[in-house]
Design goal:
The structure holds 2 protein chains of 2 kinds.
Chain A (H helix, E strand, L loop, with lengths): L3 H5 L7 H5 L15 H6 L5 H39 L1
Chain B lengths: L2 H19 L18 H25 L2 H32 L9 H21 L4 H29 L21 H35 L2
Helix pairs in contact in B: 1-6, 2-3, 2-5, 2-6, 3-4, 3-5, 3-6, 4-5
Chain lengths: ~90, ~220
């Protein structure tokens, strides 16, 4: 499997671009150069990446849920006003 | 928006994060998928709570025939079905990597829970068959009471009598020796969180339906 080389080096930043294309891909940094956040995310078999993905999905869904909730509240209020007028 | 909803939002965020971060013991076959306990099992718990609510609302409807009870019963059933389907799909994925198959007809809990979902799909088909609101409400309330009554038999009583790979077979509780006690620290909060989320969704859907009734009825 082509994915194997990614699996082997999960503890560091994977430089897939350099491995796929010849020469050093500009802009990719080694694990020592990268920020503390990137180093943390690359640790523990990349489980933090899954956590990040899950949280992104959760926050997007949550945002939408709150938005719909507020829209329904607004509609309810406009209904109340109409009923009071009538 | 009511404050308890913000509480549910924060609670669920903490549960999801902690579910990934806690150290879990090494369990053969399951490995990291043991964390699915925080997601897959609460789906079924939440579904049970939602159907229990629908059961209660259906009885209340038959008691005084207020359409509001019918709206609540329909909403609770819809959300329960939604969570049940999530449980079914997550279970199939989990089974693929721990039992080696997406679906097996020799697994009673799998098939009976699919059957239970079909009973509630039929509930919505039944509802769509009536144009008269009162008639629809009454007949679907009766159907729902029957439907919810089958759930404990399909999901708990029968699967426990039969040999099965699923934890909780052959008279054992679902928490068996393969379930580490540490997992419960996240599991119970996850159950509470998902039930809170389900009640939140129900609240929005119910209010939407009430508005819908008002617009089609009076204006």
């Amino acid at each position: 499997m082509r994915l194997n080389f990614i699996q082997e080096s999960t503890s560091s930043t994977v430089d897939t671009l350099t491995q796929s294309y010849s020469g050093k891909w500009e802009g990719t940094e080694s694990i020592e150069q990268s920020s503390a956040f990137i180093q943390l995310m690359a640790s523990n078999d990349l489980i933090f990446v899954v956590l990040g993905v899950s949280l992104i999905i959760w926050f997007v869904l949550l945002f939408y849920l709150i938005k719909v909730d507020r829209n329904v509240s607004k509609l309810e209020e406009s209904f109340k006003e109409k009923e009071n007028e009538a | 928006m009511k404050p308890w909803k913000y509480f549910v939002a924060v609670w669920m965020t903490v549960v999801i994060t902690a579910g990934f971060l806690i150290r879990i013991p090494e369990i053969a076959i399951l490995e990291q998928t043991a964390r699915n306990l925080f997601l897959h099992v609460p789906m079924w718990f939440t579904m049970m709570v939602a159907f229990a609510m629908a059961f209660y609302y259906s009885i209340r409807y038959l008691n005084d025939e207020h359409l509001d009870w019918d709206i609540k019963a329909e909403t609770a059933t819809a959300v329960g079905l939604l969570f049940g389907l999530c449980g079914l799909f997550t279970g199939a994925l989990w089974a693929r990597f721990t039992w080696g198959t997406w679906w097996t007809f020799s697994e009673p809990r799998m098939n009976l829970s699919a059957l239970a979902m079909l009973i509630f799909v039929a509930y919505f088909i039944l509802r769509s068959a009536f144009n008269d609101r009162e008639k629809r409400a009454k007949i679907s309330a009766i159907y729902n009471i029957f439907g919810v009554t089958t759930i404990p038999f399909l999901l708990y009583i029968i699967p426990r009598q039969l040999p099965s790979l699923h934890p909780g077979a052959e008279g054992n509780p679902a928490f068996s020796d393969m379930t580490a006690p540490e997992l419960r620290i996240i599991f119970y909060p996850a159950v509470i969180g998902f039930i809170g989320l389900a009640i939140w969704i129900m609240d929005i859907v119910k209010r939407y339906k009430q508005l819908q009734l008002k617009t089609s009825g009076s204006i």
